[in-house]
Amino acid sequence: MRVLRYCYLTLVPLLVASSLAAGPESYNLLTELQFPQAADLPGWEPRPGDRGKVFVADETLCIETLAGEGQEWAGNHIQYQYGFILEKATVRIEVDVASQNSWRDFFMALLPQGGSLHREPGVWLNISNGNTSGVLVRRIEQGQATAVADAQQLPFKLNGGALVVLTLRNGSMVLEVSRGDEHRQFSFPDLVPPGWRYRPFTVYVGTCQHGNPGEAARVRISSIRILSSRSEELSAQELASNRPGRDDSVTYIYLEEAANRRFEGEVVNDGDNGWTDQGPNDLRYIPRGYQFFRNVPFYISDRVEVVGNAYLPACVILRSHHNEDLPLASDPITVKTKACYLYFLHTAAWAAAGSHLADYLVTYADGATVTIPLRVGQQVGEWWDPEDLPEAVVAWQGRNKVKYPVGFTYTEIGAKATLYYRRRGLMSRGGYGKMIGNG
């Protein structure tokens, strides 16, 4: 039986470590849809719009919408469920359009994950399919969509299909549209302002029309891929393994007895026992209760106060130069079960690469002890921009009010034999680490 516990460790040292279309040499594949195999749209979700539907037919994904009388606008699309960041990354979005019917538009939109088409910020790309095909790119700012350049013409119509590729890097975008030997490339420098890029973006793919209700707008898509140069960006398949749920075949270890801090902060350096005392730069949005992270079950305390329903402390934080009023070691955390493995969910803040920040001390029923070291870049990493490490894997990543991504890694520790764990504890290395664990 595995022993699974949520031990969250944040270590806070005093010092803070302080041609676009071609892109990088290698990409990390975030999502790929090939039809008809991907009929269930893994990692994507249909967003039925005006009198529209989404279905798979003739080995393509069909997206339809139908406008009403007059000049009514209608649109329908699918949306990538997860976010990707543009800051310090090259993102490539490839859509193989099998066909688009005449006098209708194919469109793609880039906007914040969880946002809407009419919410700032955003970028909207339309490829019209009238007497000629044209490209129009608009940026949504303060609720208004403004063209960033005059409409550009394509040498062919989309009736016969085309490969549409967006490459985004340093806020600029290159659009490539090709069919056979015909190819056209358009550049849009500084399309995404710097203030937008730290937010997780997602993409919409669909069709739209203005008026003319005699025939529905219909786009047929053969495949979609999204790739990122950020090796630590999790794929849709990896993120799909994160979900609520409880596994009764494992033993959860609850850390409430030792918790001394909350995930939520309000004001910087106000001493309110919130996370790393950096105000809203916190972990308030971490999923609570029983969760699966990368298919490994953990428990994150969801206890609340009787009056006010505020979350009770769920983290164990130890002393550092940043918070000298905190303890040097946690209280003993009771285990009392046999196990082959312990799973630790933890992270670090302001951590110096290679530093030995803390230790887990595991005590067996026979009195034997094992010390498990935590070194930055090996078993534990930064909670900002988490990444896989030689002895740890990114388990969960999300956002707070000022940063994306933030998150945790987890480390698996195996016993030499199936032994009886009596207790374990967490110890700071003295001055350079803030230790946090939660149950």
Describe the fold and architecture.
This protein starts with a strand and ends in an 11-residue tail after the last strand. The longest helix is centred in the middle third of the chain and has 5 residues, at 236-240. The strands form four sheets. Strands 2, 4, 5, 7, 13, 14, 15 and 17 form an eight-stranded antiparallel beta sheet that branches. Strands 3, 6, 8, 9, 10, 11, 12 and 16 form an eight-stranded antiparallel beta sheet that branches. By secondary structure, the chain is mainly beta. Residues 1-21 and 431-435 have low confidence and may be disordered. Strand 10 (133-141) and strand 11 form a beta hairpin. The chain is built from one helix and 26 strands. 1% of the residues lie in helices and 44% in strands. It is elongated, with a radius of gyration of 25 Å. It folds into two domains: 3-17 and 237-428, no CATH class; 28-228, Jelly Rolls (Sandwich), CATH 2.60.120.
Q: Keywords, please?
A:
1% helix; 44% strand; 8-stranded antiparallel sheet; single chain; elongated; 439 residues; 1 helix; Jelly Rolls; mainly beta
Total helices: the number is 1
- Average residue pLDDT: 81
Q: Supply the number of structural domains.
A: 2
What is the strand content? 35-45%
- Please summarize the sheet with the most strands: 8 strands, antiparallel
- What is the terminal-to-terminal distance? 19 Å
**Helix proportion:** under 10%
Tell me, briefly, the overall form.
elongated
Structural class: mainly beta
